Amino acid sequence: MPEVIFNGPAGRLEGRYQPSKEKSAPIALILHPHPQFGGTMNNQIVYQLFYMFQKRGFTTLRFNFRGIGRSQGEFDHGAGELSDAASALDWVQSLHPDSKTCWVAGYSFGSWIGMQLLMRRPEIEGFMSIAPQPNTYDFSFLAPCPSSGLIINGEADKVAPEKDVNGLVEKLKTQKGILITHRTVPGANHFFNGQVESLMSECEDYLDRRLNGELVPEPAAKRIR
Predict the structure, then answer these.
(1) Most CB within 10 Å of its CB: which of 11, 90, 108, 209?
(2) Mutual angle of helices 44-55 and 196-211, in 10-degree steps
(3) Distance from C-alpha of 62 to C-alpha of 142, rounded to nearest angstrom
(4) What are the tens digits of pLDDT across the range 17-52?
(5) Inter-CA distances, 58 with 29, 44, 182, Å
(6) Where does this protein have coiled-coil stretches (predicted)?
(7) Which domains, and CATH codes, for the chain?
């Protein structure tokens, strides 16, 4: 997979990029865990997500947030990292103008950034939020959440306790016109130690069902613009 360097808001960003053979294939952007706690684009879960989308014909990009690896800049507590993610998506879209839709998948800190990106980019039609931390980060911006997606967490996650994730899911499930799918990996901690295979099999199952046209929300009442 080609190593790429592209311009971000705080300097160059380093990524790994795999274009699809289809010009109009959807894009998948994968976002890594917290930069100050060892999170990089080479995290095993991030790599597996990248490979999962690539195998299904997506044009796929993962990258290092500012200050990680060969990406320039310094950690910016989420605001700058959100700008990095938006720049990354802009960069892929500039190479694939025929691609009309995309997905965003984030793990831990990356899931918080991914959900914020979702609010700003109407072309994002699906998301995967892995081990989100509503006890640490504010998710109240999801009002309303614009796309259907998967939220998945570990049953024994002490970093993001299950009750907090359940609270976020319940709040999002009250929204019309989208479908939130929630899965819990039995016995898994925040890092899915020894459980990455179970995690990925849930993610693959969800993605395949969405690509097959399943998991469609009930139509929402049309809003007057």
Answers:
(1) 108
(2) 30
(3) 24
(4) 999 999 999 999 999 999 999 999 999 999 999 999
(5) 10, 19, 23
(6) none
(7) 3-212 (3.40.50.1820)
